[in-house]
Each structure stands twice: as structure tokens, then as C-alpha cells.
Write a structure and sequence with these properties.
Elements: H1 12-18, H2 23-26, H3 33-45, H4 49-61, E1 73-78, E2 84-87, E3 94-99, E4 105-109, E5 129-132, E6 139-141, H5 145-175, E7 179-180, E8 183-184, H6 189-215, H7 221-239, H8 251-264, H9 267-280, H10 283-286
Helix pairs in contact: 3-4, 3-5, 4-5, 5-6, 5-7, 5-8, 6-7, 7-8
Length: 288
Amino acid sequence: MSDSSDSVSASRGALESTGLLELAGDVADEPDGSAWLAHTVREVAQTSPSLAFVLAGRYAADHVGRAVGPGGSVFGLGFAGSATVVSSALEPERVVVWDAVTGSVSVAPWRSVVPDAGAKRSGLAQADLVEITIPSDAVVEDVDASELVSRWDLFSGAALVGTARRAVLESQSYVLGRHQFGVLIGSFAGLRALLAEMDLRVREAEALLLRALDDDSSSPVSAVAGRAAVAVCIDAVQAHGGYGYIDEYPIAGLLRDAISIQSRAGGRRFHLARVAQLGLGSQATVLP
């Protein structure tokens, strides 16, 4: 599936035939199941960041709330004073929300949620993002919230890594096909240095993702990958010159998607709090 004006839902039949939608359940008992899922999300993001975002949510929460509905989940983070935004694509059976204030995980049938699609968003246009309010009668699941959030961090991080890699590949292809003053602009020292820096940023994020998969660490993948993806996409716009701003080229869309995934993955304050807890422990443990 490639980026287009159509929603991810338009390709549901094709996605079901590939097995992508049920992959989390299929590999649940495999020792390297998370690696398979992260690799899938990362590869899909190079073609469609919107679909990668949708799959990341399904894969993160697939094991939660199965009693509520047999189909796929949609996952969201809930923060005080801000709306919970999730994807309504692919007709999820249930919504799973982690509440950052209470630390609880709530599950409700999607049919009981009244989504507000009125807010306009410029990124992840094919993911059908909506604001939701979790119903008051939602079931509070007895699950390991830290595992759920870690899975979301891992898979949303994989989506950001794939989006960033796509920006690098698009930029490399552009500078090797564009002439100026009778020579390829890919021969210009400044552009070569810019693309090399972009590649290094993505390699660092890819390495962190692989490390998190290898040692089952709680590394804040999406925090690092989010910053890298946004920075790389901004550099990609620069590498494309004026063409980077127009929709005939994918770069502006990739930048919007990278910013959107970064925000939906938790945002800056959430990740700063997670990194602080990893290094310092909970705030309560260090207070006198």
C-alpha cells in the first residue's frame, strides 16, 4: 500500500489477505515475536506511515481486552487536560487507553465510543485520527501497564525509524537525479554532507531500536526516533529545495507524519518523565 488520499481502511481486504492485521496474535508465543512486529512496522512505514501507525497500535494492544471483542484493538495514551487521539481506521473492535494520571488501562468496545472527527490534522491523513472520550463504564484491565506502554513505545518508535529512512532514501534518489549547472547536485559537497548527517541520525535510531529488541530493554525508542525523524525530514525538505514544500513530492507529507507520530507516541513531556524515571527512579522514591 502506498501513501494516497484514500484511508487505510480502503485497503482492508488486501491487508487481511497478507495477514498483517492478525500478525501480533500469530507470533504471540514466539520468542522473537516483538522483533517480527517491529520489523514489520518499520518496513511498512517506508511506504505508508499512516498504516504503520495503525499497525503499531494494534500490535501494542492486541493482547489486552480480548473478552471485549475478538477483533483488533486501537491504542491511545490519555493525559490530563488533553484529548486522547486514536486511529479509527480498519474498524477496531475495542479501544485500549492507558491513563497517565492513574496508570490504569481501560478497555471499551469501539461501538461504545463516540469519536469526534471534527478536529483537522495535517499528519497521518490516511489513519483517520479522531478524538475520543473513554466511556465511564469501560473495563479497567488487570494488566501490566508498563509492558503495554513499552510495546507502544517500541512499535511507534519503529514507525518513526521507517519514516525517517524513507526520507533519506527519497533525498538520495532526488539528488542523484537532479542536475544543476550541468552536473548532478549529488556531487555538491554541502548536499553530500547533509545527506550523510541524515543517514547517521537514522542509523543511530535504528541501532537503538535493535538494542531494545535484543536485550528487552526499556530504552525510550520513540523519544530518540521521534527527534531523529523530525530532524531528518526537515533536512530532507532542505535537500529538495523548493520542491520539498510541494505535495508532488512526498517529503512535506513525511514531515507532517513524523511530527504526528512523535506527538501520538507520547510527546516531549511524557518521554522526559520516562527517561527521568529510568535514571532516577520514581519521583516518590527520591522525595524526602
